[in-house]
Design a protein that fits this description.
Helices cover about 30% and strands about 5% of the residues. The protein has about 200 residues and is mainly α. The strands form two sheets. A two-stranded antiparallel ribbon has the order 1-2. A two-stranded antiparallel sheet has the order 3-4. A hairpin with a 2-residue loop joins strand 1 and strand 2. The N and C termini lie far apart (about 85 Å). The mean pLDDT is about 85.
Length: about 200
């Protein structure tokens, strides 16, 4: 039995999917030129960041520094260590590293912040009521339909649900600043203010 190879004439790598090898299938999906010369990694090549002794992973950097470029973290931020192992990169946190340079709780918090920032941008970054612009953390997503089974966007962000679930819930929501959200809530439920009289 012969081994199936990539359908490109110049490539004799083993077939992976859709008649392409792994590399050419990835390029096909990404819309990258299939005939672009293959980059050969130099096993002795190190990270290009000054003072870093880790081996090269991508874009001339080690995995840690490339991850920092993608997340917008300063390249030279100190890596904290706990018991000789890499720790969370939040200053003062001594919990062990979990993912993306953070311990598990900080990784979850950073993921929540990143997703909320994107959702606020999706809504235009302005309050529906007062029309003012604020930083993303000032905003709330007000569920205007108040439909049964409604779960707040905040809870969904904490649960790290997939983007499709968030988009479905956002169809019922309007973006409002914290002040306008409180005003809306108390105008909907005036009985909450009765004790104040």
């Amino acid at each position: 039995m012969t081994t199936k190879v990539c359908k490109l004439a110049h490539c004799d790598e083993k077939h992976h999917c859709k008649e392409y090898c792994h590399l050419h299938y990835k390029r096909h999906r990404a819309g990258v030129d299939l005939y672009k010369p293959k980059q050969i990694k130099d096993p002795g090549r190190g990270c290009s960041v000054k003072g870093c002794k880790h081996k090269h992973s991508a874009k001339g950097m080690c995995q840690l520094h490339w991850s920092r470029v993608k997340t917008g973290t300063p390249l030279l931020q100190e890596v904290q260590e706990k018991n000789g192992k890499r720790g969370c990169r939040i200053k003062g946190c001594t919990t062990k590293h979990h993912s993306h340079g953070y311990c598990a709780p900080h990784d979850q918090r950073m993921s929540r912040i990143s997703t909320k920032r994107k959702l606020v941008e999706q809504f235009g970054g302005k309050c529906t009521d007062c029309k003012l612009e604020f930083p993303f953390y000032i905003f709330d997503f007000d569920n205007v339909l108040d439909a049964p089974g409604h779960v707040s966007i905040g809870k969904l962000l904490d649960r790290r649900v997939n983007y499709a679930v968030l988009q479905e819930e956002l169809k019922r929501c309007e973006l409002v600043c914290a002040n306008c959200h409180r005003t809306r809530t108390y105008s909907r439920y005036p009985e909450l203010l009765e004790d104040e009289k």
